[in-house]
Amino acid sequence: MLSSNTSRHLARSIADSLERSPEATAVLGDQHLTNRQLDLMSRACVSALNENGVGPGDVVALDSALDSRFVAALLAVVRTGAAYVGLDFADTGQATTVADSVQPTAWVTRPGRPVPAGAATVLLDDTVEPPDPARATEPANAVTAPDDAFQVVFTSGSLGARKAVVTTYQGVLNRVLWFLDAYPLRPGSVVAVHKDVSLVGSPVEMLTGLLAGAPLLFLDKHTVLDPEAFWSALAEHRVTHLFGSPPLLQLLLDGAAEPDATTLDVVTSSAQSLSASLAGRWTKKLPGTRLLNMYGLTEAASNVTCFDVTGTATAQDDGSVPVGTPITGCDVRVLGPDGQPVPDGTTGEVHVGGVCLARGYLDRPEETAERFVSDPDGARLFRTGDLGRWTEHGLEILGRTDTQIKVRGFKVLPEVVEAVLAGLPGVWLAAVIPVGDPLDAQDIVAFVEGAGPLDVDDLARQSSPRLPTHARPGRIVQVAELPRTVSGKPDRARLAELLDTDRPAAAPAADGLTATEELVRGIWLRVLEKDTADRADDFFQTLGGHSLKATNVIAVLRRETGVKVPLRLIFDHPVLADFAAALDAFTAARESGARG
Questions:
Q1: What is the pTM of this model?
Q2: What CATH number does domain 513-596 carry, 3.40.50.2300, 1.10.10.10, 1.10.1200.10, 3.40.1080.10?
Q3: What is the DSSP secondary-structure string of 253-309?
């Protein structure tokens, strides 16, 4: 296993890998790059970054729209010794937050993309050969200290003044090198790259392939959310390694009857609780694929424990799958209120230490000191807030010490959502609960108490711009009075009992809709569990839909119409009337092609 210290730092290790087979494929997807071409593109980017004074201690903003060029930009940043923050430059909210709080030294994107006014910009186009040979000279690899900043990651549950975690070079390198040592990639391996570039798990995909000399297959979100297209891409490119999550595994299993993915060697599942039933289905469907269940967090550079599900009886049991034992370089402890380890089988708070730990929260010293603590011997630990216990299969996660929940893998603090709703006109009090397992919820429901009848759809429209997509309630229910505990706080257990008794009734037909609009409206209302929707409603922005709900809509449409509607149609046309028109046009074109 390679050392994770600066004697053989990340940039040199990747360069060695690229130089071993210069004409081998490095990147697949929207653009095909050889190792040599990737190296040249990266060097040209390094030169441009150097011209803008980028070096260790700086942060570079990388645009998600770079697609497969993102890996060249990431390698360039590593070669300068700087850190990076990934985001969608077209999202003005994200861009403003990053510009104000992180203050990147440079912004790397494609021609024609928006950048903040006055920002130093580096453009990467489709050119794989640098126009100026002088810019292709070997860059001087910056020497980085082990705890130098590698990535700035905004936590998914933060709203308003968003909280950013600063991970380190040694943290991410430790995670990648552990995997390559424990599960070496064989010749012919291909790694799928599909995670949002703003997430802590994103560089793990890319660096795993780069260090192992395996091609990276870049998949866009439309392919990832379309099970048939996803399986097809995995089979076509003979993908062997997929870093996933329970929702992704569920989507792939439900979306294809007989997937042709026999080349898959290793699939990981993290970010959410993996149920034993889902693990059992996966191992039965793909018995030749190794399934790893992992536990991790942004503050520890992704995963810190691992459990090999393959071939274990646990996959057939009820409940959730354990998350296993610590990976190399990570110290995982279950501690009691006194800060001492609890006996095996006893519940305590999970603490994480080791080289994986982040530096802390950007410009938030008090919060950093509160969550990053020291044990009696001076070892640095992170208080995760997760409740867990040690079992014969390793660590088992049981819940939270606070009210934080996870919705589709994203952290959500109910109190923050409740505050947004309670601030709307006419609302006195709000309470939010997850639908299903608090650690593995697919949606949240809000209950509101107010002055007289409230238009809950209007409340959803007003609150949507103030909440990220994953924190928008799928339903808002008005109650005469919120049930309370003896301390006066909302009684969430009693609220959960109301879910089955307050399902929305079937929506009446709307006037003035075309037949297709009425069809689409009915499906949207069923999938989203809404009372009303009109022609001008946006599936995502005003109705609270998300990518998994969009996938459900397309699945229902395909089943009810017999037309293989492409998933991207709802992303390209999210407004109901526009989507219905696009659906008519797609159907007509398909029928015309069939006749021709």
A1: 0.81
A2: 1.10.1200.10
A3: HHH-SS---TT--EEEE-SSPPBHHHHHHHHHH-TTSEEEEEEEEGGGTEEEEEEE-
